[in-house]
UniProtKB/TrEMBL annotation:
It comes from the Bacteria. Belongs to the TonB-dependent receptor family. InterPro entries: Beta-barrel_TonB (IPR000531), Beta-barrel_TonB_sf (IPR036942), Plug_dom (IPR012910), Plug_dom_sf (IPR037066), TonB_rcpt_bac (IPR010104). Residues 1-27 form the signal peptide. This is TonB-dependent receptor. It is found in: Cell outer membrane. Residues 65-171 form the TonB-dependent receptor plug domain. It holds the Pfam family Plug.
């Protein structure tokens, strides 16, 4: 048996890469069929039109079967109709791919246990910039910015290839759009949808959008000249969505961890001391435990407007030359409003009951407040952001000779995120009623229950306390040139070669305007009672077990952010403090210039069992320059019992550099055991570049310190990328035209991970009043370690001492003012987060895939399961900084379809097991575990005519909720309720 020649395979490969629509598409630079030795795709390739769910699955099967290495993909069902409304939701149905959801929608991907920052996303073979204010310094691509209507195919490369740009350790994802010259003629379609998001219904009036039903429009138009010399393609879409989510959280994390025999601020009383009798099942001396710092209920409404468009011009003056000029644009605008209610613990006298050790968690934690004058905090937020992505690219493909093909590609792409509101990119107005008595948090069920005694909103009306106005900015830029060629050699071999340059720039900037007047920025009488709107909490969390607890503190007040901001701005006489700054406190700018060269030799082997090999090597050299605007800290001020904000002076820029180079080999081998059965083996080395915050120059201190010191961060531009040695084995059985079963085994050996750790430092030699002469005098006079008592003592006994300023008296009769650290006071210590190449890890796993069509019945299923394992997991019993792989989880998908000439139905269930999402919470080095989550989606389409289709879709049909916990399940961090989303639409093809 002789292995088929490359040119004999071309038609089947075109099926794999073509859009399943009337406008097929191909990848400009990384189509998998190219690696087999076939021609660089041109308009002369025979095209095969495919339609429907079943053909989409069949095309995806062929893509997998005909590629070098392990490649999976999803092909559009029809023109303007990708299988999911969100690309991340589509990707999660591929084995080994899991998604992170934000606002109930897929945003980032984890592949084979490798987190979002180490997965490369390409658009038509081009590296895309990233920009996300929710992750100001990350490299992960935000798929929620891209609409799916103009996408013809997604390709997921799980093994490395020499010609693929570096950066994807987990996978490289190529997003492919339509090209008009792929099929002669004129084709178009338009679509309209009504999107009904039920999560908007379950919100307070002050944050709720006026309607839960919003429109979506899309259209695609493609035309070519009759002779095929030129083509024009245009696509556009616009979507509005009004949504909401309600969240119970311990947002500032859990204080600790402590050992059972420790006696520090925040610990529970030791045996024999006052209050110890109020502890049930106390943690044993060797046990680890933590206590909550706060408990918050927030209700958030979000409005989203997403606009996408692409213009493609193609010209083929002669058969041997095809040029393409394209421009892609996307804009994603978000307006967010939030109201919340919370209680903060000050770690005074308490009662508590605990789970058994060795890692104990409080089932019920009560703090006694006999004076009944602590704050019931109720906050509000109103901000907006805008992200724009722009990409201009040019591609030329030339058949120089019969055996030599050349391709040139250039693009400039930008991604920019910034504030889209006069109130900044994020903000909070804190209000409070100073009438809180004994406060209890019950963590015994899924929903943490807050109970408060003595609330009196009449005797202690609400007033604005603290405020924070932030402005964030991020911009990513990519300028890339690629030149590649393919030389056919011998009978069934070819040499692929290429060179390229890419310059990546990232800028992230941030400013904070904060007023720390948490005891009251103005008087309660400044606020008309009509500003506050009474509401109850329970109904917003009705899907969570425990929300019906009768002990729940069920009353709070919402307010209109803009109205209250106007009042406090005028009443305080400090309007500038209630708007964001016009300048940035921090400004980090990083540039990476990379040059690359690759060679790859592909050949078919005429052996008893046909074999194919692809052996390649890629060399890449990168220079890094990072410049940062560093705020210079000048003082620490005690403004409340537990808040010590840092004062900053004029900032300055500093610059640091780094460089690295890598030689990255890759080997792919496959063999046909028989016509329907194949085995594969691959080895490749890949790199994943550090996050931008890890390589940013300069040391940045956080604005708010505490009694025990402050925090900050600094980057390291000399960090090396994470390097992974990847091994893959696969067995694939294509037992039917549209059916297959496969088992893939993979192993990754990773080194040079930048472990996040903390160092103790004393930057700027800042003096803190903690431990100073006045502090020690107050402590010895009977205050002990109680910072509120110490603060009152200093104000009453030393009101004119250096650094002490008394400004008045609060509603409880306590003096207000500031205490500034003086030269004779101790120097403050800061825990500085930094990075270095110290960590290694390995992971391995198995992927099981089944796709089966039940003859001509119209029924079919697609199912997969991924098992991922690594010994480098978080040790919950260990205290301090740790390195562990985040995102590591098992996952499974089950998709059932039915299709005939009138109906197409798809029910898709996606499940992801528990995974570690972070090794730090708001309190320090503590784990964040996302609990197992499963979601059912449904899609039903009906062909009214061959040109008109109506479609119904349901997302999160069973109204699932999500939960994140700390070292134990009782240590709730974030418990979130959203709601189902329904869409009804129609699509017409011309």
């Amino acid at each position: 048996m002789h292995y088929p020649k490359a040119n004999q395979k071309l038609m089947s490969l075109a099926v794999a890469s073509a859009c399943a629509a009337l406008i097929p598409a191909y990848a400009q630079t990384t189509a998998p069929e190219d690696s087999r030795g076939g021609d660089i795709p041109t308009t002369s390739i025979q095209q095969v039109t495919v339609t429907g769910l079943r053909q989409s699955l069949a095309s995806s099967l062929n893509l997998k079967r005909q590629s070098d290495g392990i490649v999976d993909g999803i092909v559009a069902e029809d023109i303007g109709k990708f299988p999911d409304t969100n690309l991340a939701e589509s990707l999660q149905r591929i084995s080994g791919v899991s998604i992170d959801r934000v606002n109930g929608e897929g945003q980032k991907i984890t592949v084979r246990g490798v987190g979002p920052d180490f997965n490369m996303v390409l658009l038509n073979g081009r590296q895309m910039p990233t920009s996300n204010l929710g992750d100001l310094n990350g490299r992960s691509f935000d798929f929620s910015n891209l609409a799916s209507e103009a996408i013809s195919q997604l390709q997921v490369y799980k093994t490395s290839r020499a010609e693929t740009p570096t950066g994807g350790i987990g996978a490289t994802v190529n997003v492919i759009t339509a090209r008009p010259l792929d099929k002669l003629g004129t084709y178009s379609s338009i679509g309209i949808k009504a999107v009904h998001d039920t999560s908007n219904n379950n919100l307070p009036g002050d944050v709720k959008a006026s309607t839960s039903t919003t429109p979506e429009f899309s259209g695609i138009y493609s035309t070519t000249s009759k002779d095929g010399h030129w083509g024009l393609g245009v696509s556009a879409s616009y979507q509005e969505r009004n949504l909401g989510f309600n969240q119970a959280s311990v947002g500032n994390g859990w204080k600790g961890p402590f050992r059972g025999d420790e006696n520090n601020w925040g610990t529970i009383p030791q045996p024999g001391t006052a209050g110890s009798e109020n502890i049930t099942n106390r943690p044993k001396p060797g046990d680890i435990y933590q206590v909550p710092q706060n408990l918050n209920y927030s209700m958030t409404g979000v409005k989203r407007q997403r606009t996408n468009g692409q213009l493609t011009l193609q010209w083929q003056p002669v058969k041997e030359l095809t040029t393409t000029l394209d421009y892609t644009y996307s804009e994603n605008k978000l307006q967010t409003k939030r109201n919340d209610v919370s209680a903060w613990f000050n770690f005074g006298a308490s009662a508590s009951s605990w789970t058994n050790g060795p890692i104990a968690a409080p089932l019920v934690y009560t703090e006694f407040i006999p004076a009944g004058n602590s704050d019931i905090a109720m906050g509000g937020a109103d901000f907006a952001t805008k992200t724009q992505n722009k990409s201009l690219g040019f591609n030329a493909q030339w058949r120089a000779t019969k055996d030599l093909k050349l391709e040139f590609d250039a693009h400039r792409s930008t991604a920019e995120s910034k504030a889209d509101s006069p109130f900044g990119s994020s903000n909070t107005l804190g209000t409070a009623s100073f009438s809180r008595g004994d406060t209890t948090a019950d963590f015994s069920q899924e929903f943490p229950v807050l109970s408060i005694k003595g609330a009196d909103f009449t005797g202690a009306p609400q007033q604005v306390t603290g405020s924070v106005f932030q402005n964030g900015y991020m911009k990513g830029e990519v300028d890339q040139l690629q030149f590649k060629g393919r030389l056919r050699m011998l009978e069934a071999s070819n040499l692929n070669f290429g060179i390229g340059t890419v310059e990546v720039k990232n800028r992230s900037a941030f400013s904070t305007q904060q007023r720390d007047a948490w005891t009251g920025a103005t008087k309660p009488s400044d606020y008309p009672s009509s500003l506050w709107h009474a509401d109850t909490i329970r109904q917003y969390f009705d899907q969570l077990a425990g929300s019906q607890n009768p002990n729940l503190f069920n009353t709070f007040y919402t307010f209109n952010f803009a109205q209250v901001r106007d009042v406090v701005s005028k009443a305080s006489g400090l309007p500038a403090l209630y708007l964001p700054k016009n300048t940035y406190d921090t400004d980090q700018r990083t540039g990476e210039k990379s040059k690359s060269l690759y060679l790859q030799f592909n050949t078919d082997w005429d052996t008893a069992l046909p074999m194919h090999t692809a052996i390649g090597v890629r060399y890449e050299k990168t220079d890094v320059v990072s410049t940062a605007l560093v705020p210079a800290a000048t003082a620490i001020t005690m403004v409340s019992a537990n808040e010590f904000p840092v004062t900053f002076g004029a900032p300055t820029f500093t610059t640091l550099t780094g460089k690295y180079h890598h030689l990255l080999p890759s080997v792919d081998w496959d063999m046909d055991l028989r016509d329907d059965m194949k085995v594969r083996a691959s080895y490749g080395e890949t790199i994943g570049r550090p996050r931008y915050d890890q390589i940013a120059g300069g040391q940045i201190l956080n604005t708010l310190a505490r009694v025990d010191g402050g925090t900050g961060s600094q980057g390291n531009p000399a960090l090396k990328p994470v390097k992974s040695k990847n091994f893959d084995l696969s067995w694939e059985w294509y037992y039917g035209k549209d059916s297959f079963f496969s088992v893939n085994a993979f192993y990754k050996d990773l080194e040079n991970y930048a472990g996040q750790s903390k160092i103790d430092a004393t930057p700027f030699n800042l003096h803190t009043p903690v431990g100073g002469a006045l502090w020690n005098e107050a402590s010895a006079a009977g205050c002990g370690t109680d910072p509120a008592c110490i603060r009152n003592y200093i104000f009453k006994n030393h009101p004119t001492a250096p650094g002490v300023t008394v400004t008045g008296v609060d509603s409880s009769g306590n003096p207000t003012g500031n205490i500034v650290g003086q030269p004779g006071d101790p120097v403050a210590h800061f825990q500085i987060t930094t990075f270095s190449n110290q960590k290694k890890a390995s992971l391995n796993g198995l992927e099981f895939n089944l796709q089966h069509m039940f003859g001509n019945t119209g029924f079919g299923i697609s199912a997969n399961y991924t098992y991922v394992h690594s010994g480098l997991r978080y040790d919950n019993g260990s205290v301090g900084e740790q390195f562990a792989l985040v995102g590591l989880s098992n996952s499974a998908n089950l998709v059932g379809i039915y299709e005939n000439d009138k109906w197409n139905v798809r029910a898709a269930y996606n499940w992801r097991g528990e995974f570690l999402s972070s090794t730090f919470d708001g309190a320090g080095p503590n784990p964040n575990y996302v609990e197992p989550y499963g979601q059912l989606d449904l899609s039903v389409g009906y062909n009214v005519t061959p040109k008109l289709v109506v479609q119904f879709e349901a997302i999160n049909l069973t109204n699932e909720t999500s939960r994140v916990h700390g070292r134990t399940t009782q240590q709730a961090l974030y418990v979130t309720q959203t709601g189902p989303r329904y869409m009804l639409g129609a699509r017409y093809k011309f």
